[in-house]
Amino acid sequence: MLKARQKARKRTAALLAAALVGAAALTGCGSDSGDGDGKTLKLWHYEAPNGAMGAAWKQAIEEFKKSHPGVTVKFEEKGFEQIQKTASMVLNSNDAPDVLEYNKGNATAGLAAKQGLLTDLTPEVTKRGWDKPLSAGVQTTSRYDTQGVMGSGKWYGVPNYAEYTMVFYNKDLFDKYKVKVPSTFEEFTTALDTFTSKGVTPLANAGAEYPAHQYVYQLALSRADRSWVDSYELYKGKPDFHDAAWTYGAETFADWVKKGYIAKSSSGAKAEDAGTAFISGKYPMFFSGSWWFGRFKSEMKDQWGTFLWPGSKLTLGSGGNLWVVPKGAKNKKLAYEFIDITMKKGIQNVLGNKGGVPVAADSSAITDPQSKSLIENFDKLAKDDGLAFYPDWPVAGFYDTLVSETQKLITDSTDPDDYLDALEKAYDSGAPKT
Hints:
Layout: H1 13-25, E1 40-45, H2 52-67, E2 72-77, H3 80-91, E3 99-102, H4 106-114, H5 122-128, H6 136-139, E4 143-144, E5 154-155, E6 161-170, H7 171-176, H8 185-197, E7 203-204, H9 211-221, H10 226-234, H11 244-259, H12 271-279, E8 285-289, H13 293-299, E9 304-307, E10 317-319, E11 322-324, H14 332-342, H15 345-353, E12 357-358, H16 369-383, H17 398-411, H18 416-430
Parallel strand pairs: 1-2, 1-3, 7-8
Antiparallel strand pairs: 3-11, 4-5, 6-8, 6-9, 6-10, 6-12
């Protein structure tokens, strides 16, 4: 997606400006050999320090330092939106990091691969066996063909975790208002009605970033199948934005706003706002991804739990964001060795116990009950071919279209039919021409 993700950490305007100026001042990629001084690893990622990935990768950095005495790790925490907006400029400069976390999908990693900005990792994947623990569904977002379409071709990224969406719920609020944890969609809407009738907005939302359009996509997925997903995400057919699934998603979302399930005031909120509001106990539920799991574990005082979206075989999910090595990275060998450490059992077990979804953990080493449930639900989705990727992936720039158009649905400044027309127009203008 642009998974998009809440994982964006705020950076100061000065730092962002410096990054932009520095990237703009440099022209052309560095040498493809990656033969730097072998003494410095430049690493970027955008995970929260108290999140599962942030905690696991912090340990990976420490292990890298121990196994590489004399090597300096220059780590910079970036913001998701920052990487998203400046990636092509940074990747196409001599100031690119040696390894960075980058969003997967056609519109991001696929586009960068097509533009020749990423290193082909296929030889290292084969040599180090990074593909061995990855299921077919997780591998999909690691490989891209010459047109930048995911699912086949060379390896341009490696995920060391997976992710999926679910409904997080506040157990204390469910108990207070005597609401049953739903197992069917009818029970879900009953829960929404109950909270609303008590003057409580049931669903946390953020219209200025990814959460809002993920609600729409999930509603559509509940009426879709695998061929629908493949047509939309992998161009295996032409998607119909006015079919039953898309129409249901747009109309139901708009109706939920009108009913008060989702606040109109959320149109300008960001993912961080939605997440922290859920943490504070303002909302009983928040539909979002496993990337929040570790943070909720460390910050939330109320009791909470999760359930998969009722009545849907498909949900948003995939392999996690990718470790990629820029074409012009100066110390590629060090980058490969760091990626390798993140795939080891020790780091994978840390990731799992902190609330992540590891791809190569020792199941017996995952001792936290909530984490076990998280991983079990993912395993079920993966086994049942239930991962349906993210709505912003198919074409470059589609994330911005989804955000702006879904904001209009929230504020009632467009209707579902016009909303779907806008999505179709943006999709068709960016999709490969056949």
